[in-house]
Amino acid sequence: MKFLRLLILLLVFSSCKKESATLTFSEINILKETTTTIEINMPKAIGKGQAAEKINTTLNTFVCNALHIDASIEKKETLDESIQDFNNAYANFNTFISEELQQELPKWEALIDGEVIYNKVNFACIAMNSSINTGAANSSLLLRFFNFDTNTGSLLTTKDLINNVEEFTTLVEKYYNKEVNSTFTDADNLLNDNQFQLPETLGFSEEGVIILYDNFSVGAFEKEIVEFTIPYQVANTYLKI
């Protein structure tokens, strides 16, 4: 009996390893040009286990959130429903504007892109961004990294990835200051007195750890994108992966 139980455990373990090793990514491409323009290009995890399902659910949620414009209705959970809600929100708002101002509302646009930028054994990093234009002077832009344990499909947090968050934050701040001073002519006005913090999510590529700020998250007065990479030979001391 003991031998049989051991054999079963080994088979289960082998199956889990096989599932992780065979987890691959394809791509979803959607283009809808009706009353609005909606373009979605994003990865899709391929696998028979729950890991792929959990990864795809997380990525789909990002897209559904981006397309959820009308706060008066409940956010949908599928891409098709969210696309329809985006179109409905435009139609309702366009009707209101047409009645009030006697003119048509410019066509809304939603552009959502995603890419697997790092995929190693047991770990994958996916960069997602959305640009939503509903007629304002500037599009609503959101950029985020999603780091997954590909064995389970679980989303990894900064604490899962970094062994000493305080020291790593100090390292990132040094790189940030160097990047800002070399890029922006009026760097002194980019930050106020807020305490420096890590971005909400970290990215990973073949070259190193990607740090990306829109500057509002570090107390900037101007919305500027600041992005730089800390090489692994510098960052490895702080990494758990």
Describe the protein in words.
Strand 3 and strand 4 form a beta hairpin. The N terminus is likely disordered. The strands form 2 sheets. A 6-stranded mixed sheet has the order 1-2-3-4-5-6, with helices on one face. It has a 3-stranded antiparallel sheet with strand order 7-8-9. The protein is about 35% helix and about 30% strand. The chain is globular. Helix 2 runs parallel beside helix 3. The relative contact order is 0.11. It has about 240 residues and is of the alpha+beta class. The chain contains 6 helices and 9 strands, in the order H-E-E-H-H-E-E-E-E-H-H-E-E-E-H. The two termini are about 40 Å apart.
Radius of gyration: 22 Å
Largest sheet: 6 strands, mixed
- What would you call the quaternary organization? single chain
Number of helices: 6
* Secondary-structure element order, N to C: HEEHHEEEEHHEEEH
- Strand tally is 9
Shape: globular
Offer a few descriptive terms.
single chain; 241 residues; alpha+beta; six-stranded mixed sheet; three-stranded antiparallel sheet; 6 helices; 9 strands; disordered N terminus
Brief summary of the model shown:
This protein is of the alpha+beta class.
Give the topology.
Elements: H1 2-21, E1 24-33, E2 37-46, H2 50-67, H3 79-101, E3 109-120, E4 123-133, E5 140-149, E6 154-155, H4 158-161, H5 165-183, E7 203-204, E8 208-213, E9 226-231, H6 232-235
Parallel strand pairs: 2-3
Antiparallel strand pairs: 1-2, 3-4, 4-5, 5-6, 7-8, 8-9
Helix pairs in contact: 2-3
